[in-house]
Amino acid sequence: ISVLFFPPQVLLLAWAEDLECVPGFQQKVFYIEKPFEFTEDQLVLNLKFDDCKGNHKLNFEVSNPDFTVEGDGSLVALRNVSEVGRALFVRARSEHAEDTAEIFLVGANEKHGALKEILKLEGNSGIPRQKRAILATPILIPENQRPPFPRQVGKVIRSEGTEGAKFRLSGKGVDQDPKGIFRINEVTGDVSVTRTLDREAIANYELEVEVTDLSGKTIDGPVRLDIFVIDQNDNRPMFKEGPYVGHVMEGSPTGTTVMRMTAFDADDASTDNALLRYNILKQTPTKPSPNMFYIDPEKGDIVTVVSPVLLDRETMESPKYELVIEAKDMGGLDVGLTGTATATILIDDKNDHPPEFTKKEFQATVKEGVTGVIVNLTVGDRDDPVTGAWRAVYTIINGNPGQSFEIHTNPQTNEGMLSVVKPLDYEISAFHTLLIKVENEDPLIPDIAYGPSSTATVQITVEDVNEGPVFHPNPMTVTKQENIPIGSVVLTVNATDPDTLQHQTIRYSVHKDPAGWLEINPTNGTIGTTAVLDRESPYVQDNVYTALFLAIDSGNPPATGTGTLHITLEDVNDNVPSLYPTLAKVCDDAKDLRVVVLGASDKDLHPNTDPFKFELSKQSGPEKLWRINKLNNTHAQVILLQNLKKANYNIPISVTDSGKPPLTNNTELKLQVCTCKKSKMDCSATDALHISLTLILLSLLSLLCKSF
């Protein structure tokens, strides 16, 4: 190991002029070339401590428990160590003095720079540029110290004295939160701690020391003072990530990793105080072996240690194991603190047992014409329920050519529910035989296969029931003209009885005849009319009239079949056209004498509707008052030939359709001639004369004139 000591001539030059004997380590800082590994009992370096009064009751403390300092000052490794960190601190204490030495571990390329930085050489003379006035070596304090307090833990030394000078300490732990933990004797430089320290709360404190005059002005410093809290084993290992649940497949090879248990220790991770070792304290249940699992003491990995044969879920007392895991610090030594947690290990099922029917043959009885579940097929499976290795899948492999049967799995019981989905006919087949197989949702493991017990036969007996007669065809359709004579034959229906072996008779009746137009012969099924068929009736939809008929057999009890008849009605010209509107109004001084546009409609169908013919009936009187002009096939316009006096007039109009023969509607358009002032129309009948009365008076006057 390369150790960089301060050259003796440098130390003499630095301190001879200040003190003849300075209590403490004769050399406080060392730089060591870091080896790959420190070996057990290896001498690292020799430390020299002198309290200038005989070193009575001298003892040493090292920041790393892997090292110790013997009585002669030899720093020795206690065991093989590869991970040390960047520095070691050695605390020495006697009756009269205490001090700390720093050993820094550096690489080979760091040695020269480190020495130059420590000595702060000026040029090549090897003489320090300035001497150090305040000596503030690091202080090491064990955590959890007991009262009394305050307790002296170190000392700051000033190499040159000034009358009235005082030491002043500052930083986190003094005048910054947490305040008041440390204090310094202004005169002697003794550093004291006032309370118990907790390394897990604060591991180190960086303070500053300076020297002031009586007025408080700084005359030297500040110099950094490091205080390190030495870890004590005061924290138990804790399992923080629970619950801990692991899974392992049954039949897994020996040594299969199940899960990892990891505990946390708040103590210094670089010491044995946080060096954990794991152990299994208890296993529940203890069968088939009390040692089913093993835990790696360093990593915390839990692995199986039994043979795959014993790791059989179906033969175990329980597929769930609980392990009480202990984590102990101090590398597992008896003095270590412990923490425990429970690990739950579940043995997962694999599909190593095929499902098997509880019997080779099942029986079922079903009435013809009925659908639904007819039998539940039961199976046994030793695998874990509600898993794909247990859930059954059923298949009909023979005897179902017409797809009349289906089978589904009951998710609660795992039974196969065999159903009829298409009604069975006793007259076609009274017996059915189905061959059914059962498998699992998950595939079987390679060395397991489905056997004969995974298939079963179902014998199904169909019971005869009295079925209702069936109309042929159904629905029935026929086309007839509306208005055919009452008593006309519409259709003769045909119904047969499916129960061909029972030789039953059939009678017919009307079931639903909304308009009451039809009747049926109960024996031969002939349907005739009892009223005139009207295509324009509200009971006819889209030219089709619908009625229902019954066919009833002679069984006990009798069975009924229903037939539907659709009659398509052809149109006949049996409706006169209608005119709209029937009322019109016009001002007596109107300039536009086009009174109204008339439209015509007809309930019949083309060609018995438009084009319509519009005509005015013959006008009486000395002169014509209006005319009518055709606009198109369905509309015409009434025009006044002159302004008329205020009155009500009835204009006779005839409208004729295009049917063969055509039908004419003679009607009247009521025309009101009104007084119009300031956009208001007054159509009151006061002093108004009906046109018919006017015509009568004119006729009478004409006759009187002729008589004279």
What features would you describe in this structure?
It is a lipid-anchor; GPI-anchor. Residues 166-239, 240-357, 358-471, 472-579, 578-689 form the Cadherin domain. This is Cadherin-13. Pfam families: Cadherin (PF00028), Cadherin_pro (PF08758). The protein is mainly beta and 708 residues long. The chain folds into six domains: 24-105, Sandwich (Immunoglobulin-like), CATH 2.60.40; 134-230, Immunoglobulin-like; 238-348, Immunoglobulin-like; 356-461, Immunoglobulin-like (Sandwich), CATH 2.60.40.60; 470-570, Immunoglobulin-like (Sandwich); 578-682, Sandwich (Immunoglobulin-like), CATH 2.60.40.60. Helix content is 5%, strand content 42%. The protein has three helices and 53 strands. It starts with a strand and ends with a helix. Residues 1-19, 110-131 and 686-708 have low confidence and may be disordered.
Number of strands: 53
CATH superfamily of the largest domain: Cadherins
Strand order of the largest sheet: 1-3-10-9-6
Specify the structural class.
Answer: mainly beta
Q: What's the alpha carbon Rg, rounded to whole Å?
A: 60 Å
> If you average the pLDDT, what whole number results?
86
CATH class of the largest domain: Mainly Beta
What's the architecture of the largest domain, going by CATH? Sandwich
Poorly predicted residue ranges: 1-19, 110-131, 686-708
Report the major sheet: 5 strands, mixed
Number of domains: 6
CATH fold node name of the largest domain: Immunoglobulin-like
Fraction of residues in H or I helices = under 10%
Taken as a percent bin, the fraction of beta residues is 35-45%
Distance between the termini: 170 Å
Count of DSSP H/I helices: 3
Shape: elongated
